[in-house]
Amino acid sequence: MAGSFSNYLENAVLDHVLKVAALTVPTNLYVALYTVAPTDAGGGTEVTGGSYARKVANAWTTASGGAAENSAAITFATATAGWGTVVAFAVFDAITAGNMLFHGTLAANKTVLTDDAVEFAIGAIDVTLD
Fold this sequence. Notes:
This protein is mainly beta and 130 residues long. The chain is built from 1 helix and 10 strands, in the order βαβββββββββ. Helices cover 8% and strands 36% of the residues.
């Protein structure tokens, strides 16, 4: 699953490189799940309820060839109620609200029922910049 930079991150990187404003490295990164995919501008419908919470994801490979990927599995808590059909993910700089950094659609939609678990294996999330 390839991730696309959000408008927020595109502007922040440009401002940083052009010495307009420093880009602050987030303390943590959090993966969010969506039943309606967000766009570069944000939006979409993030999963709620059933023990859902964004998951900390601080392990990423060093970028090479304009790409990086998660270097550790990202495992969400077991659903205590149905989450609906998950179609996309996003990475944020905060556990709630915050700035969306990048997003992408899942290679295959996943309907999450009670007692299901969602996991992204090592290398499942690719972030590219070209």
